[in-house]
Amino acid sequence: MRQTLTQTDVRRLLEEPSAANRQDAAEKVASAYSAEELSDDKRNIAEDIIRVMTQDAEVRVRAALAENLKEYSGLSHDIAKKLAGDVDSVALPVIQFSDVLTDEDLLEIVRNEGTEKQTAVAGRTQVSEQVSEALIDTGKEEVVATLVSNDGAQISDKSFTKVIDTFGENERVNAGMVGRAKLPVAIAERLVSLVSEKLRDELVAQHELPSDLASDIILQSRERATLVLLSPGDGIMDVHALITQLNNNGRLTPSIILRAICMGDIEFFEISVSVLSRLPLGAARALIHDDGALGLPAIMDRAGLPEAMKPMFKAAIDVSNETKYDGGEDDRERFRRRMLERVLTYMEDPGEGLGDENAEYLLERLCGLEVSSATQAWQAEA
To answer: Per the domain annotation, does 8 fall within a domain?
Structure first.
């Protein structure tokens, strides 16, 4: 309910200017100042009174102003800055909620004030990339944990990388990143290998991953978890960033490339071969899908892929070239099934060159697809 300063309030303030009466007057003046129906003349008078009250010796008087003005978008900028520069109990509500403060104001606070005020900036409804970078540069756990858990904070890939480099073993910071609505793929990949089993479960839940893929993450298979992070909607730059990061960290293995292509992710294979062979993506694609017999073996040699696994890569590419998504229901699952069947039956012994773990993984995937299709058919009949 909107409060109004009455003649009785003024008289009481004049007769007994106690801290309690001044606090009551501050609340009512601030409430009236933010009222839409107030005339310009009266608003100017109220504003002048508020400026005087921002210098009151009693903290609770100034705190009453801040609490009642923190979300008023019409607040004069100089008053907002004055309150934001006050002691924490006065400043924090204004710093966290006032949209009158500019990025320049916020950067000044981050660079010159203490942890409590920095944390208030990190918790604002919207935080720009520039302000986020400055907050991360403080190197403070409380500040950074608050920032990364705030979906309203815009954080660049570079800043996310700095967070992981600095706080990679900090579960509180990692939990904040896991809880975000959206993470860059390359950052999510790094998190998979850093977070606890509990946080991996939350990562699965937060990003609504299918249960069969979720089980892979819970089993802590880095390669499986990495592939889970890729979805059909990811842009080529996201996939390229992930693959480059995997390569830089020695994790772009033939095994993960094979698993990806066997799950129908041709783009992952193409970009991986491009990165490993140090050829432009266009040139790599041309050699991979060359109609002749020389292109694919040549680029696989250049990429350093194991000789024993080359027939399986070739089988997968053959399926890719022969079979396209048909546009029908579950076409992606049918494509994957054909891919898996071709690779697993290419050699008399599916484990030869493939490795027991990879063969088991791919067989599990094939069975999973078959069970999923049977379940869907049963549900359709029901």
So the answer is: yes
